[in-house]
Amino acid sequence: MKIQYKELSFWEKLYLPAIVKGLSITLKHLFMWPKFTMQYPEEKPEPGPRFRGFPKLVKDKEGHPKCVACGLCAAVCPPHAITLQAEETEELSWERTPVSFEIDMGRCILCGMCEEACPVEAIVLSDTYELVINDTRKWVFEIDKLLEDWEGKETELFLKNRK
Amino acid sequence: MAETEQARTLRTEHMFLNLGPQHPGTHGVLRVVLELDGEVVVNAVPHIGYLHRGYEKIGEDRTFHQYIPYTDRLDYLAPLSNNTAYVMAVEKLLDIEVPERTKYIRVICCELARISAHLLGMGIMALDLGAFTVFLWGFREREKLYDIFEKLTGTRLTTSYMRVGGVVMDLYDGFGEDVRTFLNDFPSAVDEMEALLTRNRIWVDRCKGVGVISGEDAVQYGLTGPNLRASGVEHDLRKANPYLVYDRFDFDVPVGTNGDSLDRYLVRMEEMRQSARVVEQALNQLPAGPVNADMPKIVLPTKGKVLTSMEELIHQFKLMSQGFEPPVGEVYSAIENPKGELGFYIVSDGEPKAYRMRIRSPSMINLQAFPHMVRGGMLADAIAIIGSMDLVMGEVDK
Ligand code: SF4
Ligand code: SF4
Prior knowledge:
The complex is a heterodimer. Chain A is α+β, with helices and mostly antiparallel strands. Helices cover 26% and strands 15% of the residues of chain A. Chain A is built from 6 helices and 5 strands; from the N terminus they run ααβαββαββαα. In chain A, the strands form 2 sheets. In chain A, strands 2-3-5 form a 3-stranded antiparallel beta sheet. A two-stranded antiparallel sheet of chain A has the order 1-4. Chain A starts with 9 loop residues before the first helix and ends with a helix. Chain B has one domain: Orthogonal Bundle (Cytochrome-c3 Hydrogenase, chain B), CATH 1.10.645. In chain B, the strands form 3 sheets. Chain B has a 3-stranded antiparallel beta sheet with strand order 1-2-3. A 3-stranded antiparallel beta sheet of chain B has the order 6-7-8. Chain B has a two-stranded antiparallel sheet with strand order 4-5. At the A-B interface, α2, α3, α4 and α6 of A face α3, α6, α7, α8 and α12 of B. Bound molecules: iron/sulfur cluster (SF4) (2 copies). The site of one iron/sulfur cluster has 13 residues of chain A, from α3.
């Protein structure tokens, strides 16, 4: 399909018609409703159920981390952001639990592969997107920070999504 | 004799000018050293590497699965398309056939990515040449698409949506309606962008006859994509080598005549309309069914099964900790990306990681023709040419 381009006519070569036409279109937009722009800090976008915010660890009903420290998330993480150390435990119905679990948020690319890999749904990408850290020393999120309560996405959602 | 004497004493030195890397008209971090005689460009030497991240080398150190997020960051204006190109190369290596539904999903994703890339590309070109409004309108339309991408993949830009043998998740409920709503408003939005530019004298003066490259030269330089087609060469991988299910759709491949900046702009505008047609048809034909190939040794099991069945759990562990092992061999597979032919050449020695990962990125190769196009033009033409070539530095530097 050849694109045909007609040469500009005499009228079009005068600047004025194009300017008038352009201004009339932009003027129309001035009165268009609704406005598309979102006034960000005041209005906040609502993340959808699949949203990939920063990773969080999930707790069971008693408040223990669900993680069994299998290390799959650390193995699959493309930029190697996860470091964890396992420990044996007797208090729980399973035998392993993490003593330390760190995610380097300076490296994490929020790809969601840890969530995809975890066999017990112990790590999920939350719907938190406001992630500004000024101090580079605070980029590494320790286990306490990762286990903090947060409102939002339920782990079941992911199960539902990946039928 | 007297003339040469005069010429010698009054010789004007050529001036060297760095265009970029911080110049907004160079689309990221492209640096071009221009040799100027007055305002006429005598020569141009692009210097690249400011965004080099070693992606080909990283490909040798990550499993095929882990490499997917890296492909998002090649042409970061069309990550869905890059994902598709990459997983298709790996699938070719493994000799996997993906389900019908996935093929359609991939076509829809690629075409939506093409629309979003061209909207931004042409918006930026207009911005560089002083038409700010068009850029904002293009951005607005692209934003609507990105909302759909966010609902579909979880993020706006770094989608990582495709997987070897399928996709991460099926389309969400209501995807079809969302896309149809977008497609309904889309033609009028493109018409408006065109109304501001296509027949505007200032725009035409700045683009027409600027950066001309003949079809023959374009082929010699290895140009692909809209840049090649603007020079009148009808070559589109979607038609020439129909991958996925492109042979089932009715669409046209626009080609230009002169190979100047105006043609490159017109071709892209028309391509967006054609892509919209493809998406429409693909949505209508979209079959039901599974989205992942039934290959437990390669494709991740579903979450529900991992939690209940031992065998699936073992596969999950094997795949996530080591990855799958492809046969020994090498493949090249390419698709038509918004910027041109994006190809992956993978050499495998049987390990879960590539032995060599070569990326044929279209912008990198298109950039080589830039000095040829700009020679003899004015300094201001350089901006129009860079804009109309629609370079993305993430892909040039890799
Ligand atoms: S989201 Fe991706 S990068 Fe971040 S910790 Fe998980 S696997 Fe690693
Ligand atoms: S994959 Fe899940 S269970 Fe295993 S270490 Fe990571 S978070 Fe814990």
